[in-house]
Amino acid sequence: MIEALPFKTPLQPYATWVMLILISILTLTNGFQVFVDFTASSFLAAYITIPIFLVLYLVHKAWFRTPWAIKIEDIDVITGKKEMDELAESEEEPVPKNWAQKAWFWLA
């Protein structure tokens, strides 16, 4: 099933763990200048997003009762693939209906 996918990222799953660690380090050291001339208000301004994110995440998990982790086998990456393959194979150019679609088709 996975072999049918058109793109597989290299260095996985190790690249994911490296990026998770790197982003965590960057998040924690983002406000390092606060510790040079420490004030409570500057510390709060630099690091308030971390507890806000954690509270919102945990409330979402508790409210909607979503699982903490999803097994890789349970993730559906195949649904809709056939339709997308057919759309990609068709040589028919989409016709824009307005200026926004015309700009988007030009960009994409």
DSSP summary: helix tally = 5
Give me the oligomer status. Answer: single chain
Task: Please give the largest β-sheet.
Answer: none
Rg over CA atoms, rounded to whole Å, is 22 Å
Helix content: 40-55%
Contiguous uncertain segments of 5+ residues? none
Our measurement of the CA-to-CA distance between the termini, rounded to an integer number of angstroms, reads: 29 Å
Order of helices and strands: HHHHH
The secondary structure category is mainly alpha
Beta strand %: under 5%
Categorize the overall geometry: extended
Question: What's the rounded overall pLDDT mean?
Answer: 88
- Strand element count: 0
SSE map:
Elements: H1 14-29, H2 40-47, H3 49-64, H4 81-89, H5 99-107
Write a concise synopsis of the structure shown.
With 108 residues, the protein is an all-alpha fold. It contains five helices and no strands. Keywords: Membrane, Transmembrane, Transmembrane helix.
What do you see in this structure?
It is a multi-pass membrane protein. This is Amino acid permease/ SLC12A domain-containing protein. InterPro entries: AA-permease/SLC12A_dom, APC_YAT. It is a single chain. The chain is 54% helix and 0% strand. By secondary structure, it is mainly alpha-helical. The protein is built from 5 helices and no strands. The model has no long low-confidence stretch (mean pLDDT 88).
Provide the descriptors you would attach to this structure in a database record:
108 residues, mainly alpha, 5 helices, 54% helix, extended, membrane, transmembrane helix, amino acid transmembrane transporter activity, AA-permease/SLC12A_dom
